[in-house]
Write the structure tokens for this entry.
Amino acid sequence: MLRILIADDEPLARRALRRLLAPHTDVEIVGEAESVAQAMELIGQLQPALILLDIEFNGADGFDLLAGMADPPRVIFVTAYAEYAVDAFAVEAIDYLLKPVAQPRLDAALDRARRLLAATPKGHDTLELRAPGRLLRCTPGDILAIEAEGDFSRVHVAEQPPLMILRSIGQFEALLPSPPFLRAGRSILINCDRIRSVQTRSRDEARVVLEGMSDPVILGRAAAARLRQALAARL
């Protein structure tokens, strides 16, 4: 089954999409969202393979949703505005449909989605890290460390500038394999496979040097002790 989430703040638009999807017996509408925040929550809960996504919501837009997720589902934009088409394909949207959507146009977009999903099934072997104006694909092993920054997470990827992702460090912890990833403290997640050395500067501070990252990660006493315990358990 092709699991789809509809994300649009207009009830009539959601109803129109349900009607257009009804002839497709392999489609399951797993949920509907009327805001970016609700869509993000439902994606985490329901894990749809595809989103039918409006662009302009109240106070936010569909691009905010994609930028805030480390590994979003594939997306078909459904909007009344033609001017965002270039931006949509920059984030690798499967298609860009203008309202009102005709049945043949949606059918063709779904056929394209089926082909792409069959050719490149999504999973945790490859992650898509989306920040405003930037998309980076990597494997979990490429991620060196993740630091909490308020509502954002600063993601350090080998040989790349850090990315600010609108996703909590707890969500990353649930996504990444453990081991090798360790939640050393409330605000830091470390890939233990990438550790080159742990240097103790004082009783209250340790410097963790990671392969592929120029600056060391600074840990407090409790986090450093947790890290050493995890490393000792792997010996």
Summary: Helices lie at 11-21, 36-46, 62-67, 85-90, 103-119, 169-175, 221-233. The first helix runs from residue 11 to 21. The CA atoms of residues 12 and 45 lie 25 Å apart.
